[in-house]
Write a structure and sequence with these properties.
Elements (H helix, E strand, L loop, with lengths): L2 E2 L10 H8 L3 E6 L19 H11 L3 E5 L4 H8 L5 E4 L4 E4 L3 E4 L7 H15 L6 E4 L4 E4 L8 H14 L4 E6 L2 E6 L5 H11 L7 E7 L5 H8 L6 E5 L11 E2 L3 E3 L2 H12 L1
Parallel strand pairs: 2-3, 2-11, 3-4, 11-12, 12-14
Antiparallel strand pairs: 1-13, 4-5, 5-6, 7-8, 8-10, 9-10
Helix pairs in contact: 2-8, 4-5, 6-7
């Protein structure tokens, strides 16, 4: 049952409860990138992971399965992380890479190249006049960033995206995020389905494994919901402050809260130990 983030128990302050859920099992840890491993920044290219956070992720990956699940392209995430012992699911899980098996492309992500190119060209042309807006092409989507756009102009950005969807309702959908519209092929695929697919593909037996997902964005809710619906339920941890204007009043299917990047780093270190 979704709860307001104000009502979530803190993951570090409720360590005994989490230890009980993990007792006798090993965690499989899934991590969003932006807003979870790095702070949200004005420009996506400036979201650089800190050395200490990278080492926390590296240390945990030496002890259990760790996967970064991001809306960014998989190769971009790999470059940003700079680690070779991680599973990486880019483009909201369309493009997966593992250290043991290399690239695993799910069939849901194939056959959309021409559509993505058309969407990119259209948005490039229509978004260009707006100062501060940017269009980010990805393997399986096109992102329209508007964090630096004036308040007055933001409704026009939204209208451009809505017009595009109205013209191609059977082909496109949009996933809203933190000051970004993610325009994607209209396919039944999201971070939640990606996590469940990874658990099955990597043969992470639920008798031995407890999946733990950390994320902050609207797109991460699919993963929280998916894990809440498994038997036994996985662990969802929302990353963010209750007093942040971008998250205030939000409800979530996550079961716990971590407020800051240092808390995420401490939590990953605790899991590793």
């Amino acid at each position: 049952m979704p709860r307001n983030i104000n009502d979530l128990p803190h993951a570090l302050e409720n360590a005994e409860d989490l230890e009980r859920r993990l007792r006798g099992k090993r965690p499989a840890v899934f991590l969003d990138y932006d807003g979870t491993l790095t702070p949200i920044v004005d420009r996506p290219e400036d979201a650089i992971i800190s050395d200490s956070m990278r080492e926390a992720v590296r240390g945990l990956a030496e002890r259990c399965s760790v996967c970064v699940v991001s809306g960014r392209d998989r190769k971009v995430v790999q470059e940003l992380m700079g680690l070779d012992n991680l599973i990486v699911a880019g483009s909201h899980g369309f493009d997966i890479w593992t250290p043991d098996e290399g690239t695993i492309e799910h069939a849901a992500g194939s056959g959309s190249d021409e559509l993505i190119e058309e969407v990119k060209a259209r948005l490039d042309e229509e978004i260009k006049p707006f100062q501060g807006a940017s269009v980010e092409p990805k393997k399986a989507s096109v992102a329209v960033h508007y964090r630096l756009v004036s308040e007055e102009a933001r409704p026009e950005i939204e209208q451009i995206v809505n017009d595009l969807l109205a013209e191609r309702p059977d082909e496109l959908k949009v996933t809203p995020g933190k000051m970004v519209y993610e325009v994607q092929p209209k396919i039944e695929w999201d971070k939640g389905r990606a996590v469940l697919y990874l658990l099955e593909t990597l043969e992470l037996d639920r008798d031995d494994v407890v999946p733990v997902y950390l994320g902050d964005d609207v797109t991460d809710e699919h993963a929280f919901e998916a894990l809440a619906g498994t038997s036994p339920p996985g662990v969802g941890i929302f990353v963010g402050r209750a007093d942040d204007p971008e998250t205030a009043g939000r409800t979530t299917a996550a079961g716990y809260l971590l407020s800051t990047m240092p808390e995420v780093e401490r939590f990953l270190g605790t899991l590793a130990r």
